[in-house]
Design a protein that fits this description.
It contains 31 helices and two strands. It has a two-stranded antiparallel sheet with strand order 1-2. By secondary structure, it is an all-alpha fold. Helix 10 packs across helix 12, helix 23 crosses helix 27 and helix 24 packs parallel to helix 28. Among the domains are: 225 residues, no CATH class; 241 residues, no CATH class. Helix content is 64%, strand content 1%. It comes from Ziziphus jujuba var. spinosa. Pfam families: DUF4220 (PF13968), DUF594 (PF04578). InterPro entries: DUF4220, DUF594.
Length: 669
């Protein structure tokens, strides 16, 4: 006797209503991607559930459409003698699928890899379009309903073509720029900046767009064009040095333009071609829906498929109206309106959008936080099963639950800008002295620039200071040691009646660098972060378990234990044997020694903040461009803003000879 794996009723439902069920699923995914696609840029990384839903909808939408098209290719051929056939109605679904696949303005790509494979979308476009044409030919009956296929198919081809266009051009950039193109850029720039007025918000948007337009930081090996002598004031942000909020707003705006280029349709929508395509596709959808509703105004009860199609059309048009509305609430819309500000009514609309734009949230504006001491204190509270331990997932789960985020206060942004300026001045001074051969030793260890700012000179022969700054290879160890020392100093400072104003800022930076090391090690270009983290956490847990405070539950008590106790932890006390990376590293002893040295310094917190900013700048500079761009879709990181500020600063101070020669050719022209 054969066992029937699927009940007959379930098979019948799939055969009779499988297409309708799948189109309902497709509509649901369409709504998710349209309504929540734009929220990725400002969504905190911890919102895993919503990200998983969006990721699933993005990946499955194409597969569901392929299954539906496959089922539509085998439906019975329409009967020319019948007035309305079921096959004829189901034929509407094919072009509607193309419309759904191409209607996601806010999320054309989920990751950068989708852009790199964008050219393959052309093959997918041809295959899907050919299948749709084949289905429409099989369902064609020369009736009034059949002729509605044409505008719907046109709208579908346009929508899907827009997505393919956006994907295939997101990362493209010519390897060389011709003189004729350079001639056009100043004309374009002078035109767009004409009659700007005295609106500071509009000026910030223009500066950000100018920087994005010339430098294109998202494209590697792009020929930089930052220095046009007559337009340098629009490129530089030196005037805003005294206002850190404005400097970070400019980077917010610029990273917003980069995000839109990589992950949305914005660069092609805000063009004349994009405007025409959007107008034609919208008119096709609306006219088809109106005619369809008129043809079946009294027959929806008799033709269930007609009701299904009408609901799908309603969902598509509603979401299309929402997307058209969102087109106006964009920095690209402001740039587009500036070019046409002299037309009637445009200036008033532009001023309204600029005022409203100041409230737009362009990224998460948060900093991830990971505290190593808190992690060790909570380690035994978070119990994981044996299976998770066997697979090594228990550590990742504990990391996740010990991670949080904090908003970035204005005082911290101001401190970041000030410290970056000091570090940059010190680096320029070292380069000048080296060029003049007045300084024989080269400052190369991470954090040494910050120490030099505070007149702490570390001779190369002073072995006793090796714990204080680290070479590039020991960057991860330096982060852990300074993190523990900062934590000890923090809890010593909080007991004072008048704590230092930089105490909280130093701790936020410390926890953020640990967050990058533990959760975003790819941005630090470190391959040994897991080894260093496991070693440090195991050593710290041993001390916290065997200390005089047997029930340590808070960081302050743990720091007292680290300060007062002899921290010699033998290898027999650790859970794992030392590795080549950690065998000669006394993490707790180094942290205790550093905290003692810092406590003897009157400007300890100024020094701590300087060192953390030196490390943050080093991380930002050495992180690959692709890693910065990858995390834009996860809410963004402050290290990416630091990277952008440093990159532009280098371009403004050190234009290449190639740039100068090209500028000379342009000016002579």
């Amino acid at each position: 006797m054969k066992i029937q794996l699927l009940p007959k009723m379930l098979k019948d439902v799939w055969d009779d209503w499988g297409i309708e069920l799948l189109i309902a699923v497709s509509c649901g995914m369409h709504m998710v991607l349209t309504l929540f696609g734009s929220s990725r840029r400002r969504m905190q990384a911890r919102k895993v559930s919503l990200r998983f839903i969006m990721w699933s909808a993005y990946l499955l939408s194409t597969y569901v459409a392929t299954v539906i098209i496959g089922k539509l290719t085998v439906i019975p051929v329409s009967d020319y003698e019948e007035e309305v056939t079921d096959s004829e109605l189901r034929g509407f679904i094919a072009p509607l699928l193309l419309v759904q696949l191409g209607s996601h303005d806010a999320i054309t790509a989920y990751s950068i890899e989708d852009n790199r494979l964008g050219v393959r979308q052309i093959v997918s476009l041809i295959a899907q379009s050919s299948s749709v044409v084949w289905i429409l030919l099989r369902c064609w009956t020369y009736s009034a309903i059949s002729y509605l296929y044409l505008p719907l198919a046109l709208a579908g081809f346009i929508k899907y073509g827009e997505t393919t266009w956006a994907l295939s051009t997101a990362l493209t950039g010519k390897s060389g720029v011709t003189i004729s193109e350079l001639r056009q850029d100043p004309k374009y720039l002078s035109e767009i900046f004409k009659n700007v007025g005295d609106d500071p918000d509009l000026e910030l948007i223009l500066r950000a767009y100018c920087r994005f337009y010339f430098v294109k930081p998202h494209i590697d090996r792009w020929l930089y064009k930052p220095l046009y002598e007559s337009n340098l004031k629009w490129y530089s942000i030196d005037e805003h040095h005294k206002n850190p909020e404005d400097m970070f707003r400019i980077t917010d705006l610029e990273l917003g333009f980069i995000y839109d280029v990589l992950y949305t349709k914005a660069p092609i929508i805000y063009t004349w071609t994009g405007f025409v395509f959007r107008l034609v596709s919208t008119l096709c959808l609306v006219s088809s829906s109106v005619v369809f509703a008129c043809l079946f105004r009294d027959s929806f009860v008799f033709y269930i498929n007609a009701g299904v199609i009408f609901v799908v059309l309603g969902v598509i048009i509603t979401l299309e109206a929402y997307q058209i509305y969102m087109l106006f609430l964009s920095d690209w819309a402001i740039i587009t309106l500036i070019e046409h500000r002299n037309k009637p009514g445009v200036k008033r609309l532009l001023n309204a959008l600029v005022r409203r734009s100041r409230k737009w949230k362009r990224w998460s504006n948060t900093m991830g936080q990971f505290n190593l001491i808190r992690y060790c204190l909570d380690y035994d509270r978070l119990r994981c099963g044996r299976f998770l331990k066997f697979k090594g997932l228990d550590i990742e789960i504990r990391k996740y639950f010990c991670t949080n985020s904090v908003g970035i206060p204005s005082a911290l942004k101001e401190m970041m800008i000030d410290e970056m300026a000091k570090l940059n001045n010190k680096k320029q001074e070292v380069k000048r002295l080296k060029k003049e051969k007045k300084k024989s030793s080269y400052i190369g260890r991470i954090g040494e620039f910050a120490l030099n700012i505070h007149n702490i000179i570390l001779p190369e022969s002073a072995e006793s200071f090796n714990w204080c700054v680290g070479a590039v290879a020991d960057f991860d160890k330096s982060i852990v040691v300074w993190h523990l020392a900062t934590e000890i100093c923090y809890h010593s400072e909080t007991g004072k009646q008048h704590p230092h104003p930089k105490t909280e800022m130093g701790r936020i930076l410390s926890n953020y660098m640990m967050y990058l090391l533990i959760m975003r090690s790819d941005m630090l270009s470190i391959t040994t972060s897991d080894i260093v983290f496991l070693h440090a956490s195991q050593q710290l847990r041993v001390v916290l378990k065997t200390g005089k405070y047997t029930l340590i539950r808070d960081e302050k008590t743990a720091c007292e234990e680290l300060k007062t106790r002899n921290l010699a932890v033998g290898p027999e006390s650790a859970e794992t044997e030392p590795t080549m990376v950690t065998k000669d590293w006394d993490v707790l002893g180094d942290a205790k020694m550093l905290s003692e040295k810092l406590s003897q310094n009157e400007n300890a917190w100024d020094l701590i903040c300087s060192v953390w900013m030196d490390m943050l700048c080093f991380a930002a500079t050495n992180c690959g461009t692709n890693r910065h761009l990858l995390h834009l879709r996860r809410g963004g990181e402050i290290v990416t803003h630091i990277w952008l500020l440093q990159r532009h600063n280098r371009d403004e101070e050190h234009p290449s000879s190639k740039d100068k020669s090209l500028m000379g050719d342009t000016n002579r022209a």
